[in-house]
Amino acid sequence: MNRFLQLALILTILAGLLGCASGKKALKKGNYDKAVAQAVNRLRSNEDHKKASTTLRKAYRYAVEQHLSNVDRAKASNDLLKWESIARDYQQINFLYDEILRCPGCRDVVPNPVKYDAQLASAKRNAADVRYDLGVEALKYKKDRIKAIEAHEHFLVVRDFVPRYKDVEEKMQEAIYHATLRVVVEQIPSPTRMFNVKHEFFVNKINEYLHNARINDYVRFYTPGEADAEKLDYVDHVIRMEFDRFNLGNVFSGKETREVSRDSVVIATRDGEDIYGTVKAKLTVHEKAITGSGLLDFKVYDNERNKVITQEKFPSEYTWSIRWASYNGDERALSEEEMAMVNTVEASVPNPQWMFEEFTAPLYDQVISKISNYYRGY
User: Fold this and answer.
1) pLDDT at 94 over 90
2) N or C: which end of the chain has fewer CB within 10 A?
3) Alpha helical stretches, state H, the chain
4) The dihedral of CA 87, 93, 97, 98: what is its sign?
């Protein structure tokens, strides 16, 4: 079904679900379709509702008259796409017909609702004829991607109105072929010679997202292998990414010893009474930390213009740290946080691969956001 017709039907259905209104207010405002929908909804739950019956009788007549008047005005106009609005009006009349037929209480109020199946079919056919001709004309300039997109959108509407219309499926395929911007996402060179880290997962994760997300119906992303397998005769854009650097540094290791205490703690009992005092302990806190940081250089290269059309450098940093502690003295002097450190076991500094993967996590989000925003309106 044509998306414009779907919208009209959805709006009417929603209007009919606006609670238990009889439609009288909508009728007074001249919202006849809404008044019919509300009255029908009310009569489904109460067949003897007088206000809803009166409203339906008037609103249905006025609604049909309004739609037929719209049809007459559209037919007399010079609007190239007039048959689409005509189809919408006939579709709405038929929708009201179906709603009344599915409501026993409504059939008593409007015993002879009208339906325009033949007229609707003719309007859809005429609308498809116009859109098909517009698509064929636009397709003459298919080497212009914007015209190819225009042609494809015309053919989509044709198929909505009349499925299997002429050779519309073949025309759509031809249009989408020329309308599609082909983008290859290249693999990333090794980020560093200092550390033996595997980095392929990063661009593979990006490709997985791009292959599943619908950023733009007229943009398709390929890996180099996919482009070779499909034997693409032309690639429009190439996305190139490279880690400008990846450093592991700011290594920190230290410890601090301090006295801790807590007042008003029961330290003894004498003659059945608690004696309160201050408890103390000597706490030694150990800490280790290491930071991975660097930049990702992101470029989009346009083959036709033989130039970089957008470039951005994305920074990222990840710091791993751990704190653990030991103590001498009364455990009750320690806070919850200090006890947590006491119960923490010293861990080794993570290996470069782990640090690299944590470093790339925010870069992934930045790259995906960049690509999505850049190509969404392409």
Assistant:
1) yes
2) N
3) 3-16, 24-28, 32-45, 50-76, 82-101, 104-109, 117-139, 145-161, 168-179, 200-212, 224-229, 336-342, 352-375
4) positive
How do residues 191-239 score in pLDDT, each as one tens digit? 766 567 888 899 999 999 999 999 999 999 999 999 999 999 899 999 9
Identity of the amino acid at 194 = M
Indicate the DSSP class of residue 73.
Answer: H
Residue listed under structure tokens 């059939």: 107
Is the pTM of the predicted complex or chain greater than 0.85?
Answer: no
What does 167-207 look like in DSSP terms, one character per residue? THHHHHHHHHHHHPEEEEEPPPPPS-SSS----HHHHHHHH
Phi and psi dihedrals of 305, rounded to 5?
Answer: -90, -10
The residue written with tokens 């909505």 in the block is 160
Q: Concatenated DSSP letters for 302-350?
A: ETTTTEEEEEEEEEEEEEEEEEEEEEEE-GGGS-HHHHHHHTPPP-PPP
Residue indicated by tokens 């410890």: 255
d(CA 138, CA 151): 5
Q: What are the tokens at 91?
A: 């579709």
**CA 172 to CA 131: how far, in whole Å?**
12
Do the Cβ atoms of 333 and 293 come closer than 8 Å?
no
